[in-house]
Design brief:
Elements lengths: L15 E6 L2 E6 L5 E5 L12 E11 L5 E12 L4 H10 L20
Antiparallel strand pairs: 1-2, 2-3, 4-5
The structure holds zinc ion (ZN) (2 copies).
One zinc ion (ZN) binds next to loops.
């Protein structure tokens, strides 16, 4: 691992163990047994690259009628290679959040008016 990390307790930088669990790496210092967490570097699950951008993505729900409303947002990581088109779309619409690729479908009973 070419990560610049060291123990917050004793500054040990070599004798460290870590395992990844989701978005977090749990680290243990082999010198003083101190444990701590650090965020994992997100990686693209398609190409394995780590050139990702954090993007605010809207959470959209269909409210009454045919109106789509933004009910929240989440941070997603997009790959500059695999998601180039989506990133371009996002940057063009800033500061608006990225809209989901698939919007909730409008039921047939709502299509009439
Ligand atoms: Zn230590
Ligand atoms: Zn990728």
């Amino acid at each position: 691992m070419a990560l610049n990390i060291c123990c917050p307790e004793c500054d040990e930088a070599e004798n460290l163990r870590g395992y990844r669990e989701g978005e977090v790496i749990h680290l243990t210092c082999g010198a003083c047994d101190r444990t701590w967490d650090r965020p994992a570097t997100p990686r693209c699950d398609r190409c394995g690259g780590d050139d990702l951008q954090a993007v605010v993505k809207a959470i959209v729900e269909r409210s009454r009628g045919t109106q789509l409303s933004i009910v929240g947002s989440q941070t997603v990581h997009l790959c500059t290679d695999c998601d180039a088109d989506t990133l371009e779309r996002y940057h063009r619409n800033r500061p608006n959040p990225l809209m989901p690729d698939e919007l909730p479908t409008v039921g047939p009973e709502q299509m009439e008016n």
